[in-house]
Structure formats: structure tokens, C-alpha cells
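Ticket #223: bound-state structure for flavin mononucleotide.
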Amino acid sequence: MDVKEAVLGRRSVRGFLPKAVDPAILRRVMAVANRAPSGGNVQPWHITAVAGAPLAALKRAMAESYGAIEPEPEYPIYPPHLPEPYRTRRFTNGEQLYASLSIPREAKAARLRWLGQNYQFFGAPAALFIHTPRFMGPPQWADLGMWMQSVMLLLLAEGLQSCAQECWSRYPQIVRRFVPIPDEHVLFAAIAIGHGDDTAPANALRSERAPLDEVATFIGFPD
Ligand SMILES: Cc1cc2nc3c(=O)[nH]c(=O)nc-3n(C[C@H](O)[C@H](O)[C@H](O)COP(=O)(O)O)c2cc1C
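RESOLUTION: The complex was predicted; output attached.
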């Protein structure tokens, strides 16, 4: 698989088959992803990979807690008043996802139930939690993203799919009951990993992107 194929082929998969993930593949992928760049080569990423009994216990706890227990967010996921054009991009993505699931706007309970699927890792049998010491700042958080994208592309080349999930940063107190993440680390996100279920309605979604000229400016190049 070449790089372009991998970048274009990756998408967030939100429905997985109940088929275990080979830990040897995860180790291989993560060892290569460790070649991701980071400012000053600080390598601020810390990863806890989870499957089997602890993952099942966490999923059970979240099934009981979601909607009943107050989140304790590690950080605000979005700015409080996301302005245009970001607001519309986010809104459109959500609406397209719910359309793929045939959940109408007014079906609040169904939408909440779907959000709860995040906390079942959409059925994925393996997950990575990505955390970093609390003293790290925005440049190091950006490095975490480099590592995560590297993993997600490499997984694809191994026949596995994934979904990055910052939603887990809302319930660190529950995650920490089952996953040994040090208190002095901020839980940034998780990645759900598994064999994608092609028949899952959510997996029909192809997210949009703004045209290049909306986000990029070129100066000084020849015409
Ligand atoms: C850091 C990060 C966190 C994300 N968190 C979530 C999440 O909590 N739940 C979810 O369903 N998708 C999550 N996503 C997936 C985005 O919604 C998705 O990447 C975006 O809509 C573009 O779609 P694509 O990944 O299919 O190209 C996250 C993506 C990133 C990069």
C-alpha cells in the first residue's frame, strides 16, 4: 500500500466485527509509528493498549455510567463558541453521520444512544489510550496527533480499521478504574481498532473536506 492509498483509504470506522486483533500486529504497527516526528524528538506519547477482560469491564462500566454519571473532562474538546466555517463543518459531519444511521434530528434519545456507542468502542475488540504528562503543551499535543495518524495508516496496511476518539477524555475517572493511566498524565484520546464491519450503516459515511484553496495559500511560486 503506498502512502497516498493509505491516506485516502483511512476513514473513521464506527462498526467492527467481533474478531480479535492479533497483538503481534499491534506491536508491529506501534513500533513503526514510534518513528513519527515530534518537536525536539521529545516523543511525548504514552500508549496503553487494551483488549480482552479489562476492555470488556470498561465497556460494561460505561454502559452503566453513560448518561448517569457526570463527565470529568480532561480538557474542552471544542472552543466554547466555535465560529464559522468550523461550526458548519462540525454540524454537517454530525448530520451526515446521523443520516447514514437514519436517525432524524428530533430523535434525541436515539442520538444519545448512538453517542453511547462511542463508549463501546463501536464494538472494536482492541483500543489504544493515548496519554501524555500534564506539563506538556500544545506542541506536544500536536505530536500525539502525528503518532495517531501514523498508527491509523499502518493499521490499514495490516487490514485493520480504526476510529480516533477524543470522547474518552470526558470520562477519565472511569477509564482509570480499568486502565493504568497515571494521574499525572492527561488522557488525550483513544483509538478503537478492529476489523471494520462493511455492513454497519455508519461505515457508509464519507466525510467531506473543504477545498484546498479554502485552507491553503500559496505565495511566491511560479504560475
Ligand atoms: C483527535 C480525534 C478525535 C476524534 N474523536 C472522535 C470521537 O470521539 N468520536 C467519533 O465518532 N469520532 C471521532 N473522531 C473522528 C472524526 O469525527 C473524523 O476524523 C472526521 O469526521 C473526519 O472523518 P474521517 O476520519 O472518516 O475522514 C476523532 C478524530 C480525531 C482526529
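RESOLUTION NOTES: The first helix runs from residue 3 to 9.
TICKET STATUS: resolved
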